[in-house]
């Protein structure tokens, strides 16, 4: 029996060490997505309090908690502490339940989030043809975005700029003669509006978050099993 307990003990330690490393990876990936601000200025002009990166912020919190739980699990396994193992089990179970709840809510409100995203794009288009301070800040952000990702306008192409096109066309000027370019008001500009790239970026980030979440669920279930088996072994 002692051999089985020792085997479980060291398996639990190795598992929790890997679990701790997973926490670091999750935290690193989430911070990378959060720091990568492609499209954030376009989605949230001015002082908007809404953010398309709420799920990423939650993932940062989850990664931090996973690191702490991994440390607790390692200490519980090495010291054979039932208290630490129980704390690890309860914390892991709560995270798992929260992930399931978040997944259900995410699936339920996904259509609403897509609708809100589209409404945000079409609302922000108005800022391109205006001249106030908030509009100018948004126009500067979009001009930088256009030049970097070779797109023009937000939804309808160069026409989104309205009367401000002539003073902002340089950022979306197309120097090649391929199908990706069109002529608008005598200027050769990119045909693709920036909405396409922004939606692809948001979708890519969403898939990364979903992939990490599913992988984490599998690891968490293993952690629950290991911790409870070791907990019972120590008790006996």
UniProtKB/TrEMBL annotation:
Gene3D superfamilies listed in its UniProt record: Tetraspanin
Domain of life: Eukaryota
Any one cellular-component term (Gene Ontology): plasma membrane
Subcellular location per the Swiss-Prot or TrEMBL entry: Cell membrane; Membrane
Keywords linked to the UniProt accession: Cell membrane, Disulfide bond, Glycoprotein, Membrane, Transmembrane, Transmembrane helix
InterPro entries xrefs: Tetraspanin/Peripherin (IPR018499), Tetraspanin_animals (IPR000301), Tetraspanin_CS (IPR018503), Tetraspanin_EC2_sf (IPR008952)
Membrane topology of the entry: Multi-pass membrane protein
Main location: membrane
Disulfide bonds: 152-172
Membrane spanning stretches: 12-33, 53-72, 84-109, 206-231
A Pfam family recorded for this sequence: Tetraspanin
Family: Belongs to the tetraspanin (TM4SF) family.
PANTHER family the record matches: TETRASPANIN, TETRASPANIN-8
Complex and partners: Forms homooligomers. Interacts with MEP1B. Interacts with integrin alpha3/ITGA3. Interacts with RICTOR and MTOR. Interacts with ADAM17. Interacts with ECE1.
Protein name: Tetraspanin
Biological source species: Mustela putorius furo
Source lineage: Eukaryota, Metazoa, Chordata, Craniata, Vertebrata
């Amino acid at each position: 029996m002692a051999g089985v307990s020792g085997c479980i003990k060291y398996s639990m330690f190795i598992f929790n060490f890997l679990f701790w490393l997973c926490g670091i990876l999750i935290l690193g990936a989430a911070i990378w997505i959060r720091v990568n601000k492609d499209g954030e200025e376009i989605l949230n002009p001015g002082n908007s309090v809404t953010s398309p990166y709420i799920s990423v912020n939650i993932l940062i919190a989850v990664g931090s908690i996973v690191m702490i739980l991994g440390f607790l699990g390692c200490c519980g396994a090495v010291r054979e502490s039932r208290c630490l193992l129980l704390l690890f089990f309860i914390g892991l179970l709560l995270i798992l339940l929260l992930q399931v709840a978040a997944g259900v809510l995410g699936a339920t409100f996904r259509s609403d989030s897509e609708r809100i995203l589209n409404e945000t794009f079409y609302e922000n288009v108005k800022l391109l043809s205006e001249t106030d301070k908030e509009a100018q800040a948004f126009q500067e952000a979009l001009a930088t975005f256009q030049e970097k990702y070779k797109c023009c306008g937000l939804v309808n192409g160069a026409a989104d700029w309205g009367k401000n096109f002539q003073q902002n066309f340089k950022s979306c000027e197309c120097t090649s003669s391929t199908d990706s370019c069109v002529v608008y008001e005598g200027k050769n500009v990119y045909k693709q509006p920036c909405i396409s790239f922004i939606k692809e970026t948001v979708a890519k980030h969403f898939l990364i978050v979903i992939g990490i979440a599913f992988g984490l669920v599998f690891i968490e279930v293993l952690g629950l099993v290991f911790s409870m088996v070791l907990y019972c072994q120590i008790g006996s």
